[in-house]
Task: inverse folding
């Protein structure tokens, strides 16, 4: 008899394989989850399984308290970060975490990614935040749960809205991204990686490159996401 | 019954798919158009449709006043920039716009790309111009139309001829390129991206790298484009 | 009649081909070996044979004194380095050597790769060591054997354990990596190359980027390799 | 009836296609030739024909005075440089010219590529020379012929032997490479491009990176090319 979570697992599987196809992960360096709000569970990649051998039936179903509801494998070691985000941010449907090259490099540099151009402004109006590394006692404690707290604290402190800013860097670690579903979380991971590379190159070419001016930030964001948006179908 | 614009749509579709094959776009980050001078219309990519799912019949036919002549989808949000160029530059047959990595990085750096070598001089004799970002009132107004004005103003101010210089960077945004047809606009986009990467690397290796000397600029441009050209068949 | 080393040769062949598939080698610029501890021999790539034409039966079986036990071709010119490591480090099952781009560039820069992030700490808790170039008399002597000595001397001097730190750079030359088998040696070569690129980019973005703090180094290494590890299946 | 140069054309065609497969050319930015010493002719790519559509029968046969011996198409615009090299360097069997990314960037920087590591020393014992741009009167004269003179002058001035140093950069232009046949010329073009990227990265990581010491240069070159060479089969 089939699982009631079959389509959720498939959505999660497809999103994970897309991470791999887009060159955002090697080996086991990443994971995507997809939530089922009606049943208060989410599907997530099993821990340490390479993308080359991953199958839809390997995907694990977990509840918001990190208990396995269905699946034979252990879920991603980052599961508690995913659950914390789902519990606190009710509008998101998918979360992705990777060690993508340029995103990680900015995270290791412990710097926000400045908004330099319209590619960035097409997606968000703020610099991409880099949360500082956690305090030692939080690292030694419930680490992955505390990573979720760290993300929310960073958003609170800076007055950011997770509905607009759908990505963050964790200092010394790497990117998390989210969105209305798992595919959108993967899309945002790719956008972040692209913008991270562009910002790196921009500063190599001109260390004094100016931030994008407010009128252009607003114009590009609004034409795609504003109430009079005219981008797309 | 078939459309009278069937072959125009196919030319436009092929050029858009070539952008993707050449690694110049991800997702929906670019668009190419192809003009039909006899009928005073052009074919352009629909807005927000990913290259993976784009079909020839999705291409939209638009007139020079941006009215849709044929097609069920909304044309690219950059349509008014394309139409402005077609209306004002009678010799061009295709226009391409992308967010290609190295071209965008120079645009974000707000710097012209200096002519450093023969790869550049094989295609044009000037630095590749980077137009400054527009004034705020132009951004808040008819933005995409004004982007066209910005391009022409930059060419007028610098005394450039669009028949020779077939590419430009818009400050903080990205590249536009054109040519006798859509395929040539895509070719010029790839040449610009290649030259942009070479110039970036050149300055990393030697920040004092000299501009190419006039005799070499002239020699390489003339052997390919001069009246005694001997390059090609 | 088949060779008693058939499966050993195949393990070695597959690992060599994986180096190529992962973009870690061009032409003949690398080699992997796999040991058979029971028979005190190892299988290694033949010298100067391109990956494009390599076949499992080309793999050469050599003993710890570098004598060919089976095979018609001459073994890799680096064979004596491999045998020295097998003889002295009883727990390793595979060794890989390449001229991968970013690893070689750090080796040519004669610098250790600093531990900047969790991607690094997921695999080892120390900076990746770069051994200095050998003294002239050792180079003029039994060069490849002395390369093995150089590796062990570097580990002794710095108090490193080859069971934890499974990779090294040889100054001005390139990377060696090892592991419980040939596939793991290749995996470590890819991890080293990835971490090398991340560290390079990190320093380009922020020349003052801080080293990863001890609590995070410990947390990430322990969750994957500690006695209470909870990463993987 | 078949051409007596059929196999020469095929050798030349295969080598040109290999340039493309190795990512060393885009569009028409490169050419390889192969010589037939017995008949005092060489086969070369036709001018301006893209690699995507190139066929073996398009290859042009030319004599050392640049006269077309067989073929319907115009030979490469760089033909006179190739013929000059064949006429003056009797041991070479193939010549390749490209606009490969990192090689061109060093050429535009007008700098020799320093010998930083064993990857370089495995192939030659000198820095890779960058010839200065030609005097204006030579550029305005018989340009491609004079490019050949420029290459030989650079070798003479520096006391280099074309049998050992099989590559050069032409300042502000790009690389030429040669070898015993066309395939070796392509191989050397790829080695040059790889070494160029490694040297660029090395200096980015450590601007004070030291040149490889003489004992290592000699050891690596001799083990592959010396009279007691033990690399390869």
Result:
């Amino acid at each position: 008899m089939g699982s009631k979570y079959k389509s959720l697992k498939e959505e999660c599987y497809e999103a994970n394989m897309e991470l791999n196809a887009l060159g955002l992960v090697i080996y086991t360096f990443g994971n995507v989850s997809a939530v089922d709000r009606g049943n208060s569970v989410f599907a997530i990649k099993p821990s340490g399984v390479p993308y080359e051998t991953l199958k839809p039936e390997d995907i694990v179903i977990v509840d918001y308290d990190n208990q396995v509801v269905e699946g034979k494998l252990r879920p991603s070691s980052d599961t508690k970060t995913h659950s914390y985000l789902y519990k606190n941010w009710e509008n998101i449907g998918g979360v992705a975490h990777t060690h993508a090259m340029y995103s990680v490099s900015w995270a290791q540099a412990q710097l926000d990614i400045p908004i330099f151009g319209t590619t960035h402004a097409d997606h968000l109006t703020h610099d991409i935040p880099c949360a500082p590394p956690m305090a030692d006692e939080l690292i030694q404690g419930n680490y992955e749960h505390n990573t979720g707290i760290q993300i929310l604290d960073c958003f609170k402190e800076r007055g950011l809205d997770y509905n607009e800013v759908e990505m963050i860097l964790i200092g010394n670690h790497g990117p998390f991204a989210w969105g209305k579903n798992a595919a959108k979380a993967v899309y945002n991971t790719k956008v972040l990686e692209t913008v991270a590379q562009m910002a790196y190159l921009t500063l190599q070419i001109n260390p004094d490159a100016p931030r994008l001016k407010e009128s252009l930030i607003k114009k590009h964001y609004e034409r795609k996401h504003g109430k009079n948006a005219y981008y797309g179908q």
